Amino acid sequence: MASSIEGTCDPRFKKVKDAFAANFETTNEVGASVAMYIDGKPVVDLWGGYADQARTKPWTRDTLVNVYSTTKGLAAMCAHRLVDQGKLDLDAPVAKYWPEFAQAGKDKLPVRFLLSHRAGLPAIRKTLPPEALYDWKTMTDAIAAQEPWWVPGTKHGYHAITYGWLVGEVVRRASGKTLGTYFRDEIVTPLGLDAHIGLDAQHDSRTSNIIPSPPPGSGEVNQLAAIMADPESITYKAIMNPGAVLAPDVVNSRAWRGMELPSANGHATARSIAKAYAALARGGEIDGYRVLTPASIERCYTEQSFGMDEVLKQKTRIGLGFMLSQPGVEMGPNPRTFGHPGAGGSLGFADPDAKVGFGYTMNQMGTDPLLDPRAARLFNALYASM
What we know:
Blueprint: E1 6-9, H1 14-26, E2 31-38, E3 41-49, E4 64-66, H2 70-84, H3 94-97, H4 111-115, H5 136-145, H6 162-175, H7 179-191, E5 195-197, E6 207-208, H8 223-227, H9 234-240, H10 248-251, H11 254-258, E7 266-268, H12 270-281, E8 285-286, E9 289-290, H13 294-301, E10 305-308, E11 315-318, E12 323-324, E13 338-341, E14 347-351, E15 356-362, H14 373-385
């Protein structure tokens, strides 16, 4: 399998290429790509394997794949850019931009709680039909009417899917554009990225299907399945209401790819994820284009939530729209690193201390809800080479 790896790798980072090959040889990796920038310069851009479960279609330089919650980091970049543009105040009530949101005692809930998963709105209580997933207004109306599951600000819990409608609707109201359109106009086009929140059908032929995670082996526990065992639980409703977003027939459908769900349905190459984060890793600018100000970047990695997560039922540490390193779940050795993993294994992050931008995408889902060991092997090899 190692012979199928293509792309470029600075000789200093041969360990990364070796680790990428090892993922195919020693894990169930099917198709994947990894890219790394240091101080705005690409040093690793590798891809390999297959874009289909039958292993008949090679993964190419431009293969796209759904990156699930890695999308959240891209969405957060949009919100922070609006702050820089003077169009969004993180301390203002959400209802200032979205008046309907003031229902059910949420009139004073600040925008920053949406980004830090402290809003108490990780799930819709009322069971909605599966098709509601694809109707933006149905979902934003349901969230606007929803009473928080806890007093906002007192706890945190991962807003796995609702984050997309919450942050997306605020971005839409503040900018006049859907988040996918704002992302394209303000970040993707200026940086020349191949990343999409709302994927046009013209790209389907180069988009890999997601392959579901294998059943756990003897003695292994599927952490996600375990915490979703109760259909009335907050965790189950957060991920399964209104649609089973981890189901292959959902995530590989044209309907899923074509809608804009800024929490979960971004499609991108590792190269593009790495470049977006590379800008943030070096003060906010790359190729002469400023994505964010240094003040916004400092907000990105400033801790907002740390402790037991009400949804994931394990500790999480969160900034404003981004996951942060925490004990046992570190994205490299440096304390200010911020980014976002996606269900199944994808990952993007910025390390302002080492000026690293990192991106990893894959089609074979793993089971770790926070940090996939395949991605960790890759960035650990990078840091070991610096």
